[in-house]
Amino acid sequence: MHGSPFLRTIAVILALLAAAIPLWRMTHEAAAASVIPATSAPETESRVHMAVAFAQKPLRFEIDYLGRPVWQSDLVTTLTAEKDIGMTYPKEGVDLEYKVVWPPGTPLCAARLSVAANDAEPVEKTLWGTGQVDDVLSFP
Asked: Is the per-residue pLDDT at 38 higher than 70?
């Protein structure tokens, strides 16, 4: 091998410095561009039709959206119920937390939730369980 180790080290350092300048410019321009605030359309409230149906009458049920209850009943008298709710419903859809409590000793049961926003076709999801069921259901 020919050449001085010192000169090779200097050549490597110069090559790294030459590559560092464009890399620094690329990363700092991207950071400056991401600081620009994005404007979003204000969220409007939609009319959402919800329907619940149960295989066995539960003690209670609750439907939460963004951590807040939108429909709950502590005294369920029928196997089906419907309700229209005014809530924000983005075009990406919503995640609803569905909680159902059946009496002790009730066998495996089904609880269906149907959701239709702004007169669209309803979308149905079903939970199965015994005792207490708590799950998040996604609706488009």
From this structure: no
Report the chain's C-alpha Rg in angstroms. Answer: 29
CATH number of 45-139: 2.60.60
C-alpha 120/C-alpha 31 separation (Å) is: 41
3-class DSSP state for residue 110?
A: strand
Note the pLDDT tens digit of each residue in 40-81: 556 688 899 999 999 999 999 999 999 999 999 988 889 999
Q: Where would I find the beta strands (DSSP E) of 80-131?
A: 80-88, 94-101, 109-117, 123-129
User: What is the rounded CA–CA span in Å between residue 120 and residue 140?
Assistant: 11
- Report the side by side order of strands in the sheet with 132-139: 68-73, 60-65, 94-101, 132-139
Q: pTM here?
A: 0.66
Decide if 86 contacts 45 (C-beta within 8 A).
Answer: yes
